[in-house]
């Protein structure tokens, strides 16, 4: 099974590309983003590819600085990619958001990490949630606006009569994030980027927010790109997972395989570092890799495999040659010389 | 080994705000024995940090200790004079804060900051070379590679994990009895978190220190401490040995917290509805009753007493009170 170099999107030739674009709501190909700074070029994202299929939750996992948020922002058009393609429903959208047609903007949205800073503190909840409705001309007058906002707030389980006219400052973290979700689904998008939607929240509140998200996905047939550093959470929400390290993806797998049979040493290191609650979980963790070292600088990423300075199994080839993807089992790909 | 190092009895602390007094701590009981590792868990805003700041008397100016006693090695902390308090802070109790970026002064080199800590303690070396050697020894103890370079750096030149290691080195610069680690790994990545926790654990065990580890992530506490206290809205709800608390939690709040945490092996619950109450007008009776699925009529009226269920497992909940 390991002999051929495979593309994780699963399609290597041109005609297959077209097929991928049909099956998937979003296809990312050779996507790269470099930031020029006075210290040198930051290789935030380097030549990554993945696809998000209709109705699934695709998980993007990595530590801070691995480029997962940059990827999310490129998809949303906050950054223009340095090179590479982003194809959304068969349409190339690898440009900045201002150059995208309004219909595309209506069809995708994002929930940010920190609800405290993503909601304008001087606007009421009604104004915040109502804005996308007005911008996309979904409501004609104030009555319809009220009705629309009420429906959205109900969808995220916030009683409208209590929340409509409050300011974000009066809400708890979980409620703020619920408002951000209501805003994200206001235009009935089919694709939502969730950029660490619960990392600023307590576990008790996180569970509630995740439940709301899962319910909405069912009801509205949403596709999610779920960005997080929390592997236990990922285990429970994603259908397929990609692991990012220093701007590159090193392993792809369906969620259940990923946790039972992690292959890349970095994946194992991540998994073995997760603090857990039960002995059952403890025994499920890989034991042959212990966490060492720190993430290298993205300005001068290590040559070859970017993980080699921290990898306990690194050999000479890892320092020179970049590993290519091999298929371990169906839908499970890894980039590692081992 | 079972000598009591720290005891907090019936502590009430409030903050004066323009809306009225915010009654944050509502009768906290906590005890730490010599060499014991205690975990304090709870959601954000439940008073974990306030409790710790009260121990060191570093509360902000608008805070009022309304009631309660804190004994450290048999001495009442509230009756200590300025000199005694300084002594307490620099030689007996050390604290590691959540955000190492905020804990270090950005305009001084690590060397200056670390040397200041050593100099301020009694056991200080007067000569520069000795001081320098001690700094390097400390940084090596916290497993920082290339300590000379670290000493010559400003905090912004170090990564988050390295900064937290420097903070740990500072906390351990002088011989201590008690280490308070206030969410020491919350701002770090999982792989770094794992390293830092192991480091703290190793040092603590080597030096036979007592520790209070504060965290809202239950997993980090589980692998670290002997005893866990679950805190909610300024009260300790449940105290048990670590294994016991994680395998057999009693209080509905502790259960809810445990169930809300996503598992690596799969499985996920609905979480706890609602949020931490407003401390200016906290709910009467048990402060958890508005969020509790099992609340009885008595929960709304009377604060539940703390009762022992079996050896070292106690809980404050009317459900377990046989009265």
CATH hierarchy class name of the domain at 1-89 and 227-338 in chain A: Alpha Beta
- The CATH homologous superfamily of the domain at 1-89 and 227-338 in chain A is named P-loop containing nucleotide triphosphate hydrolases
By helix and strand content of chain A, what is the structural category? Answer: alpha/beta
Could you say what the CATH architecture of chain B is?
Answer: 3-Layer(aba) Sandwich
List low-confidence stretches of chain A: 1-5, 10-15
What's the oligomerization state?
heterodimer
Helix and strand run of chain A: HEEEHEEHEHHHHHEHEHEEHHHHEE
Query: Strands across the major sheet of chain B, in which order?
Result: 6-7-8-3-9-10-12-11
Distance between the termini of chain A: 14 Å
Percentage of β-strand residues of chain A: 15-25%
Rg calc of chain B: 21 Å
Strand order of the largest sheet of chain A: 6-7-8-3-9-10-12-11
In the CATH hierarchy, what is the class of chain B? Alpha Beta
As a percent range, the share of helical residues of chain A equals 25-40%
**Total number of strands of chain A:** 12
- Stretches of chain B where pLDDT falls below 50 for ≥5 residues? none
Instruction: Estimate nothing, just give the exact number of structural domains of chain B.
Output: 1
Give a nutshell description of this structure:
The complex is a heterodimer of chains A (338) and B (323). By secondary structure, chain A is of the alpha/beta class.
Explain how this protein is built.
Chain A is α/β, with parallel strands linked by helices and 338 residues long. Chain A has 14 helices and twelve strands. Chain B has eleven helices and twelve strands. Chain B has helices spanning 48-56, 82-92, 100-103, 110-120, 128-141, 147-151, 160-171, 190-207, 218-222, 242-247, 252-260; strands spanning 4-17, 20-33, 37-41, 63-72, 75-76, 93-96, 178-182, 210-215, 227-232, 235-241, 307-310, 313-315. In chain B, strands 6-7-8-3-9-10-12-11 form an eight-stranded mixed β-sheet. In chain B, 46% of the residues are buried. Chain A binds chain B through residues 63-64, 172-175, 202-208, 210-211, 229-233, 235-236, 259, 269-278, 280-281, 284-285, 291-292, 294-295, and chain B through 43-44, 159, 161-162, 189-195, 197, 216-220, 222-223, 246, 256-273, 275-276.
